[in-house]
Amino acid sequence: MKKAIIISLGLLTAFCFGFMLKPSIANKETETLNYKNMKLGAFSLSLSVKDLQASKSFYENLGFTQFAGSNEQNYLIMKNEKTLIGLFHGMFEGNIMTFNPGWDENAAALESYDDIRAIQKHLKSKGATLEMEADEATSGPASLMVRDPDGNLILLDQHL
Questions:
Q1: pLDDT score of 28 more than 70
Q2: Which of 81, 80, 90 is nearest to 58 (CA)?
Q3: N or C: which end of the chain has fewer CB within 10 A?
Q4: Cα distance between residue 96 and residue 148, in whole Å
């Protein structure tokens, strides 16, 4: 009887341990991701602006507040509830849609996200031409860029 209880407790402990670990490791570097519900993280629109202060004032009038960046760095991240807009002066041409795998809209680490290298492998398997690629031999922070069919630039910028 004691042996059966010990075995049962061992199995239960192993199951609970595995269950508790699963959310912290789920989808980070797996190649078999669920792309119908891909986890891209925080979304923001990165705008190329002519006058950083004028743009900041305009978006403040729309209810945005400065969340990150500075005038000295030539960029500001503006936030209104869960909406993020990046204002960038002299850093790139045009506007960019940006996703941050691993971050929520407060730049806090997500418990579960799809690693940028797995996303990249998926995009390549679907025939996407990447403008910039993440090094698949690495882990952690990396970026990739791709254009949609209309030429809009999309940046995936993973900070974790």
A1: no
A2: 80
A3: N
A4: 11
**Residue 145 tokens, joined:** 């860029």
Architecture in CATH for domain 2-158 = Roll (3.10)
Residue where the block lists tokens 């670990």: 21
pLDDT in tens, 84-115: 999 999 999 999 999 999 999 999 999 999 99
Report how far residue 8's alpha carbon sits from residue 5's, in angstroms, rounded to the nearest whole number.
5
Domain layout of the chain by residue ranges: 2-158
3-state secondary structure the chain: CHHHHHHHHHHHHHHHHHHHHHHHHCCCCCCCCCHHHCCCCEEEEEEEECCHHHHHHHHHHCCCEEEEEECCCCEEEEEECCEEEEEEECCCCCCEEEEECCECCCCCECCCCCCHHHHHHHHHHCCCCEEECCCCCCCCCEEEEEECCCCCEEEEEECC
- What b/e string do you get for 24-39 counting C-beta neighbours within 10 Å, with b at 16 or more? eeebbeeeebeeeebb
What are the structure tokens assigned to 34, written together? 């669920």
